[in-house]
Specification:
Blueprint: H1 7-61, H2 64-87, H3 91-110, E1 113-116, E2 128-135, E3 144-149, E4 151-154, E5 157-160, E6 162-168
Parallel strand pairs: 2-6
Antiparallel strand pairs: 1-4, 3-6, 4-5
Helix pairs in contact: 2-3
């Protein structure tokens, strides 16, 4: 028998041989598709975690503007308490203002607002805003001498910087030159 006598049989044998490599490639292709699926699933899970983290951060900072305004009111209450402490013989007013201040303080705490401690601390530009300097040798240089406006954090991040007065080294005293040298 020659291939000329049975061309159909030879053709089907060639097709069978051609199909064998395709069948061998199928498990490899399936493995590649499975690997792609696993990678996509992992990417999706990572993106989902990232979205949840960003959403939580947005929620923490969503009330920033109103909290800054409330801080100004709270500061006014604190100033009123400081002024009225020695001048007002009627304790009812002071007790009422103290109660309001305490309620406002508790509200701020419940939203994650905390005061920044500044008095006597080393100046830190990420927490404090220096609005005045005072020459002194009584404390180390860059020590906060006075807190002019309280600063606050919101969930660990600065909401409002503390306005402070900072200690600086006194300028060296220059002796007048002998001979009356003038600049003119």
């Amino acid at each position: 028998m020659t291939s000329q006598e049975y061309p159909e049989q030879e053709k089907s044998e060639q097709e069978g041989r051609a199909e064998q490599p395709k069948e061998a490639e199928q498990p490899k292709e399936a493995e590649q598709l499975k690997d792609q699926l696993l990678r996509l699933r992992a990417d999706f899970e990572n993106a989902k975690k990232r979205w949840h983290k960003q959403e939580a951060e947005i929620r923490q900072w969503a009330n920033k503007d109103i909290l800054e305004q409330l801080l100004d009111i709270y500061d006014d209450f604190q100033r009123a308490l400081a002024v009225s402490s020695g001048e007002n013989p009627n304790g009812g007013f002071k007790a009422g203002v103290e109660m309001i201040a305490k309620q406002l303080e508790d509200l701020l705490k419940s939203y994650g607002v905390a005061p920044i401690e500044a008095q006597g601390k080393r100046f830190d530009h990420s927490l404090h805003e220096a609005v005045a300097h005072e020459e002194t040798e009584a404390v180390p240089e860059s020590t906060v001498l006075a807190e002019l406006r309280k600063g606050y954090t919101l969930n660990g991040r600065v909401l409002r910087h503390s306005m402070v007065k900072v200690a600086v080294k006194p300028a060296p005293k220059q002796e007048p030159l002998e001979g009356g040298c003038s600049n003119g």
